[in-house]
Design goal:
This protein is mostly helical and 197 residues long. It has 8 helices and 5 strands; from the N terminus they run ααααββαααβββα. The C terminus is likely disordered.
Length: 197
């Protein structure tokens, strides 16, 4: 079976970033799909700025895109215009307010901070770099690390058994290899994700 550690780390990093996005966008009365529409419109050319092109690019239904565009229009982030040659075609463009919004929300503060935290480090593997990125994102986001028990500051290895210093309960060898929600990263270790068996 292939090693899925890097995949799991990328998945966890993605979840953290999406969680941070949802919080940030919700404070503005937006959903992530609304911001994806704005990002697309900021990047597309004049031949690709139609609702149908937005739906195709984002892989969404026309109904979802239509509702998203209505929200963005009401908030004055998007402007519609008729095609000069074919009145049936509608073009979309970011308003100045929409452009400013995109400038204000990108990049995510938590990701920018994580980039700063790991920029000077050298890594010998993709997994090590992803572990450092995950750890930096978790710290910047004040998120629980959900790391493997044996990499926790509360993990104590004694002569013939393991102990959780937080709960004062014994840990089996299996427990030591599992993810814990009470995990606190020890300074000299990295969070590890164990592959499912």
């Amino acid at each position: 079976m292939p090693d899925l550690s890097s995949f799991k780390l990328i998945e966890r990093i993605s979840n953290l970033l999406r969680s941070e996005e949802r919080k940030k966008f919700a404070a503005m009365g937006l959903q992530p799909v609304h911001v994806r529409v704005l990002e697309y419109l900021a990047a597309c050319n004049r031949f690709s700025d139609t609702p149908a092109a937005v739906a195709d690019y984002l892989g969404l239904t026309k109904g979802t895109v239509s509702q998203s565009i209505q929200v963005l229009e009401r908030k004055c982030y998007v402007e519609k215009s008729q095609d000069t040659h074919d009145g049936r075609v509608v073009h979309l463009a970011l308003s100045e307010t929409g452009k400013k919004l995109l400038d204000d929300i990108k990049p995510l503060d938590v990701f920018a901070q994580a980039q700063l935290d790991i920029a000077t480090k050298n890594f010998n593997s993709l997994e090590a770099a992803l572990n450092a990125t995950l750890s930096a994102l978790q710290k910047a986001n004040h998120a629980k690390s959900f790391g493997v028990c044996e990499s926790c500051v509360n993990f104590i290895a004694q002569e013939d058994h393991f102990l959780c210093n937080l709960t004062q309960l014994p840990l089996s060898h299996t427990d030591a290899k599992k993810i814990c929600r009470e995990h606190v990263l020890a300074e000299d270790s990295e969070p590890r994700i164990i592959n499912p068996t």
